[in-house]
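Slack export, channel: ligand-projects

TW: morning all. Re-posting the request from yesterday since it got buried. We need the structure predicted with the small molecule present, not the apo form. The ligand is magnesium ion; the SMILES is in the block with the sequence. No rush, but it would help planning for next week.
GE: picking it up
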Amino acid sequence: MIKISNLNKVYAGGFQALKDINLNIKKGEIFALLGPNGAGKTTLISVICGINNATDGEILINGFNIIKDYRKTRSLIGLVPQELTTDAFETVWDTVNFTRGLFGLSPNHAYIEKILKSLSLWDKKNNKLMTLSGGMKRRVLIAKALSHEPRVLFLDEPTAGVDVELRKDMWSMVRKLQESGVTIILTTHYIEEAEEMADRIGVINNGEIILVENKDLLMQKLGSKNMSIDLRASLENIPMELNKFDLKLVLEGTRLIYTYNSKNEENKISEIFDVLNILKIPFADINTNQSSLEEIFVSLVK
Amino acid sequence: MNVYAVLAIFKFEMSRMKRTIGQSVASPVISTVLYFVVFGSAIGSRITEVDGISYGAFIVPGLVMMSVLNQSIANASFGIYFPRFTGTIYEVLSAPISYIEILLGYVGAATFKALFLATLIIITAHFFVPMDIQHPYIMVLFLILTAITFSLFGFLIGIWADGFEQLQVIPLLIITPLAFLGGSFYSIKMLPPLWQKVSMLNPVVYLISGLRWSFYGKSDVSLEVSLWVIFTFLVVGILIIKYVFKKGYGFKQ
Ligand SMILES: Nc1ncnc2c1ncn2[C@@H]1O[C@H](COP(=O)(O)OP(=O)(O)O)[C@@H](O)[C@H]1O
Ligand SMILES: [Mg+2]
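GE: finished. pasting the full token output, ligand included:
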């Protein structure tokens, strides 16, 4: 669906934000672009959408060149930007219809109504944008991006500063869009988010794509998690019954640490608790944590 | 041609103008009335006629021209600067729309508003001085060309500006003085010979003169010269815009 070849972007000040990017995004997939702040995610999206110019390289969408055939490629794309940039005095209804017109489609009030309803914006349709909360503005930006029935949807850090409800709504909407054949590219610096949503994950750092991998594979490789179990009484050593699990005993025998990295191994967690119960080993607290993005980068660079 | 996009931008600009309609309409009407009171009555009682035209009638084309210049620039520059300032320009840039279409939308809207206000001023003036416009078609042509040309310049200012002050600098420092010295309130022929020559360097002289010819068949410079001047401005404006667009200045990084 999207084919990026040898893309470079040097900003006017001389800063190279993208370095020789080569990336293919498949039709109908959810692709997560994972990278820390300043990695170049927004820059990459801006170049694909025509907001910024590439320094060199080529981008094809559905086989069309984004510069020569910009009308065709841009019609296919919907963009939800990272920043909450909206007009102030326009109403929700006007601004969403404005976008549809901008993308060259004839008015379709029934369709816009459907979108606004699906994003819980319908009762706000006559509100001025400046009266809306941040979460509502985010919904409006999504509605605008969907107003022209795009085949590719970019979500640039869609969950930054978003409440749980909208997050849930957003993910279910993304799933539905995927079912209808829309290709979705989202950027995030939360590994959990990429893990939760994506089919494939591309990791970007310092303007370079470090790797692109199916999510499950990547998670196996990198996404190791720790679960720590704080015990009420200390143990001398790990009981025999627990030997088949990869456990470590730390903090003078008061904490068990279980390290796992696939969904498969996650199932063993309940087994561990079963065994602990049988052995009557009481525990006070349980914590899980995941290797952070920084740790992943460290391990990637190694 | 993405007609829906042009219409969308045009409509957006119109609704922006509608929000400030009271102010948009009131200010040219009030200032026209004031000009008539101050210049028409006070000065007009001393200068009764210029070029055989009553003084009140004589200043009308200049008033109309000043308003068209200011309104074209103000609206077009603000129209494109504001989305740059807020960041909503991303949408226009990512839409399947050519630069020509962007121009048609923004410049078209600014031109439309400037012409609307020009009409309003002519109607207001009618209540103060008897006027019959001798060459209405030329007048309309002249106003349209001027409004388009200066909306283009306004658009350029809006692309170039980095802050709200800069939007006002050019109208304030260039257009207003040139308009006041451009023969709105006097005939160039009334000036000493040296100042007559200097005045000929002021492009606004040609605009006001041309418009005055369409009203009364009399002018400081010939109609052809005036038309050439406005045409040249238009072409220069289009060429600059084309260059700016090609480079993506002010829009894209
Ligand atoms: N207009 C600009 N001019 C110069 N440098 C920029 C500009 N925009 C972004 N950058 C730089 O490019 C890098 C990538 O930025 P960005 O694409 O926004 O990263 P991300 O979206 O991954 O957080 C950053 O170092 C940022 O400072
Ligand atoms: Mg970003």
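GE: first-pass observations. The two ends of chain B are 26 Å apart (CA to CA). Residues 55-86 of chain B form the longest helix (32 residues).
TW: perfect, thank you
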